[in-house]
């Protein structure tokens, strides 16, 4: 049975999992679910919070995109491609990847979602975005990117080699880079951040998602 991912093409979390699978060279089925169906009992049996995505691998089910991606990397990396997204033979390298996964979740994602709440979710709910909140989000993200500039010194990727830690940054960054916020990543004062984003956005695994689903993006 092929791996199945259930979700929305517009979901940044689903995109993370699909990109992970693309990097690993693993075949999968992507089943798009209607928004109104995620609160129905049959879907809640798969994801009790009624969110996306859900991963089905034979008789195993998993929700939450970060654990899903870690599971996929540990199980399939090196079997279809030479890409290693989560080191399993070097404790220190694995710890560095974990460190940057945690930083993405606790700092980068928190900051960028301040913008997302206003520019995506507030509009989606038919309300007017609060410009002051967008400015505050930009300021928060700018401070995070100042730290990233130092963390990326002498490196192409956060943990040295390309890893899941990098993948987890891509979908939301792409959305706001394409909007009116690319100056945050292209700031001349942050050449390391600019180089890092150029490397990430140029990955073939990401381009496959853009080619197939970009018209459905947020």
Automatic annotation (TrEMBL):
Gene3D superfamilies named among the record's database cross-references: 1.20.1050.10, Glutaredoxin
Catalytic activity: RX + glutathione = an S-substituted glutathione + a halide anion + H(+)
One Gene Ontology biological process: glutathione metabolic process
InterPro entries (UniProt xref): Glutathione-S-Trfase_C-like, Glutathione-S-Trfase_C_sf, Glutathione_S-Trfase, Glutathione_S-Trfase_N, GST_C, Thioredoxin-like_sf
Enzyme class, UniProt record, top EC level: transferase
Residue stretches making up the GST C-terminal domain: 90-218
Location of the GST N-terminal domain: 1-80
GO cellular component: cytoplasm
E.C. designation(s): 2.5.1.18
Protein's UniProt keywords contain Transferase: yes
Signal peptide start and end residues: none
SUPFAM superfamilies tied to this protein: GST C-terminal domain-like, Thioredoxin-like
Entry keyword set: Transferase
GO MF annotation list: glutathione binding; glutathione transferase activity
Domain of life assignment: Eukaryota
Protein name: glutathione transferase
């Amino acid at each position: 049975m092929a791996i199945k991912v259930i979700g929305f093409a517009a979901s940044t979390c689903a995109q993370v999992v699909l990109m992970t699978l693309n990097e690993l060279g693993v075949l999968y089925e992507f089943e798009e679910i209607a928004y109104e169906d995620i609160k129905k009992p049959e879907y809640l049996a798969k994801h009790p919070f009624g969110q996306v995505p859900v991963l089905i691998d034979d008789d195993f089910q998993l929700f939450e995109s970060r654990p899903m991606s870690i599971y996929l990397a540990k199980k399939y990396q090196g079997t279809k491609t030479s890409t290693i997204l989560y080191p399993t033979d070097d404790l220190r390298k694995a710890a560095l990847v974990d460190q940057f996964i945690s930083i993405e979740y606790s700092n980068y994602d928190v900051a960028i979602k301040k913008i997302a709440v206003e520019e995506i979710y507030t509009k989606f709910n038919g309300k007017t975005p609060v410009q002051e909140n967008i400015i505050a989000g930009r300021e928060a993200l700018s401070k995070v990117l100042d730290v990233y500039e130092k963390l990326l010194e002498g490196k192409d990727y956060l943990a040295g080699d390309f890893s899941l830690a990098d993948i987890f940054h891509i979908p939301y960054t792409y959305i706001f880079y394409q909007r009116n916020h690319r100056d945050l990543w292209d700031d001349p004062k942050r050449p390391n951040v600019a180089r890092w984003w150029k490397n990430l956005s140029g990955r073939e695994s990401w381009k496959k998602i853009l080619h197939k689903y970009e018209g459905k993006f947020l």
